[in-house]
Structures are given as C-alpha cells and as structure tokens.
Design goal:
Layout lengths: L4 E6 L2 E6 L12 H5 L18 E9 L2 E9 L10 E8 L4 E9 L7 E8 L2 E2 L11 E9 L2 E8 L9 E3 L9 E8 L5 E8 L3 H14 L6 H8 L14 E5 L14 H8 L4 E4 L15 E3 L5 H7 L2 E4 L11 E4 L19 E2 L2 H15 L1
Parallel strand pairs: 3-10, 14-15, 14-17, 15-16, 17-18, 18-19
Antiparallel strand pairs: 1-2, 3-4, 4-7, 5-6, 5-9, 6-7, 6-8, 9-10, 9-13, 11-12, 12-13
Length: 365
C-alpha cells in the first residue's frame, strides 16, 4: 500500500478513503466515490498481514560497511516510535541469512518514515554461503510481539551488480557476500557472489571444518536461522491457518501446483496459508502477507497449527485433522507422484479448491 488511507465516520457510517486530495467528477461520479476503498478494510488488517511500501532510496558500500536509506509509507498512520526495523536478506525458503538494523530518521515524503542503516551485516547462519541461499530483500518491522515482513522495492535506485560483503560468513574459496539484482515488480533480489580470500577467510574455513567434527544438536544454529524468520509464530489468531503440503515427487522437486497468486487474491483476508514440501520454487514476495513459506519449520509444528490440511500425500490425508485432496496434475507421469487412496474427491483446479476451503471453514466456524 503506497498511499495513506484516512477514515471518516459519520453517525453509524464509517468510510476509508485514499488520501490523495480532491479531484474533478468522472463519469458522473464524484472524486470521493472513486477514492472510497471501505470494502478493502485496510485499516483493520492485522499488523502481520499488512503490505507496506518500503522503497530503497540510497545504498552505498565502503569496504565491509553498508549504508542504506529506506522510506516506508505509513498508510495506517500507526507506526509509532516503538516499532523496530531491520533490512533482511532472506533465502528462497524464507530463512533470514543476514540483516542490518534500521534507525528512524527525519520524515521523508509526507506521511512516510525514513529509516537509515549503516554498518556491517549481521549474519544469521554459521556456515559458508551456498548457491541455494539466493533470495530477496525485505524490511522486517516488529511492534511488540507482532512481526511484519514485506518486500523491499527499488523503482528509482540502480541496484544491479551492487555487491554487499558479509564478512562473518566469508569462508575461503566460498562466496564473500551478496550481489543485488533487480527482481519482479521493482523488488530487490540477491545471490551469492565473489570469492573470499586472505588469511581471515582461510582461518574461518579451518574453524568451520573443525566445528563440523564436534558432536552436538545444533540448537544455536537453529535459533539463529529462525531469529528473524517470518514464520508461524507471528500470525494473528483471528483467522484460521491452512497448510498446503504437496506430495514429494520421485522425479525431484517441482514447481508449486497451487496458483499462489490466485489464492492470495481470493483468500488473503480469510485465512493464512502455510506452504511446505519438496518444491523448487520460491514464494513470491507479493503474497508474503497471506502465504507463508514453512519449509524451514518442523512438519509437526505446521500440522499442529493448521485447522485444515491440503495435500495429495497419502501419508498425510486425514491423519492430523480434516484434509482436502488437491492434485491438478493427476496422472502426470513426469512427476512420479504416489497413487491416491480410493474414496476421496480429488480437487483439480485452484478455483475449485478455494470454494472447497470456504465450505470447510464455514462448517468449522
């Protein structure tokens, strides 16, 4: 949401309008009628589900020090001084690889907040960067116990080929940091780049090799990976949680069978969707508000949180609660999917699945 929303109350009537000033009537309708967005309920949207417009205004790198300026449109006018902000580098699974604290600065444009950050990136992994770690940049806001993570946009700043070092995970002959790339809809992507050199990098690699030989449960690593992860813990309790767990393919990872964009358009204000499984595709940043990547979360935690399971995995159907069987590619031998048990109706399109989920949730409520 890149424009401020204002609320007007008159008696029992309450309206939400884009705050863009007055205008001339169009097609026999006043400007106020065109600006009325009360049906979207943007001001009543839970904090964790909001989609703020975060714009990267400046970025510079000097040795290992990164300096950024980010403007956030405070569309609901409620981001007070107690809100904490971080610029985060997330991989394709939603795990935060690195972050940079942001400090509130003087306001940018009207009704926006300007954040500044400067320093070395803080790594949230204790291993070298690897090829699958590529992903997107976002801004993570924390207000009390609620967390909001929304994609960073750079419509007016050139980010192509900007290299950001991450010294604490620069192991010799491994990537030394992240190269920024323009993504979809002016978002900012990144991928590991350059090779780390020098005595410090070789010493870091030797220490890493020694630690790998030590016994232990890796709890510290697990906590670090989830420290800034926008996972299930920050979801509001006012909406049900649905889990989508597609069956693994014997032919290897595949793309999402579920149309996540259509799901987000139709179900964003109805429920949260946790997605997991052996899927070789990221969750688009534009649907982060309602669709959460849960591939880094334990399966048991996902099943416990979900009110409804969507799956075509025979081992999960009706085992941890009510299930809907969804397989749009039924009979597609190229995926080498397991056979479905008899006696279940198979939903084959995302549109039909949305109708079926509405029906199940209505009964449960």
């Amino acid at each position: 949401v890149d424009t401020v929303v204002v609320r007007e109350e008159s008696g029992d009537h309450r309206r939400e309008l884009w705050a863009t000033g007055s205008g001339e009537p169009v097609l026999n309708r006043s400007a106020r009628e065109w600006l009325d967005i009360s049906h979207l309920n943007l001001l009543d949207m839970p904090f964790s589900a909001r989609r703020y417009f975060h714009e990267l205004r400046e970025i510079s790198v000097s040795r290992s020090r990164v300096s950024v300026v980010v403007d956030t449109v405070d569309f609901a006018s409620d981001l007070d001084g107690d809100v904490e902000a971080h610029l985060v580098w997330c991989d394709r699974l939603g795990t935060v690889i690195a972050s940079l604290p942001l400090q509130r600065d003087a306001p940018g444009a009207a009704d926006s907040i300007r954040w500044r950050g400067s320093g070395q990136l803080t790594a949230h992994i204790h291993r070298p960067l690897m090829k699958p770690d590529k992903g997107s940049l976002g801004v993570r806001l924390r207000r009390g116990t609620s967390v909001n993570t929304t994609a960073l946009r750079a419509p007016r700043v050139h980010v192509d080929d900007v290299f950001v070092p991450i010294p604490s995970v620069a192991y010799a002959d491994r990537p030394a940091g992240a190269q920024l790339l323009p993504g979809e809809r002016a978002s900012v992507s990144w991928r590991p780049a350059q090779r780390a050199r020098g005595p410090a990098a070789w010493g870091r690699r030797a220490g890493h090799a020694a630690r790998r030989r030590l016994p232990g449960s890796g709890n510290e690593l697990s906590r670090a990976r989830q420290a800034l992860l926008p996972g299930v813990t920050d979801l509001e309790c006012s909406r049900p949680i649905v889990a989508y767990l597609p069956a693994p393919s014997a032919g290897g990872p595949r793309s999402w069978p579920l149309d996540l964009t259509l799901w987000d358009q139709k179900m964003a204000m109805t429920c949260y969707l946790l997605v997991a499984g052996e899927i070789d595709e990221t969750v688009p940043t534009r649907v982060w508000g309602s669709v959460r990547d849960a591939r880094a979360v334990q399966l048991g935690e996902v099943l416990d949180a979900a009110e409804l399971i969507i799956t075509d995995d025979p081992s999960l159907i009706d085992t941890a609660g009510p299930s809907l069987v969804f397989r749009p590619d039924a009979g597609a031998g190229r995926y080498l999917l397991p056979n479905l048990p008899d006696g279940y109706d198979v939903v084959e399109t995302t549109a039909d699945l949305i109708d079926a989920v509405h029906a199940v949730l209505a009964v449960n409520r």
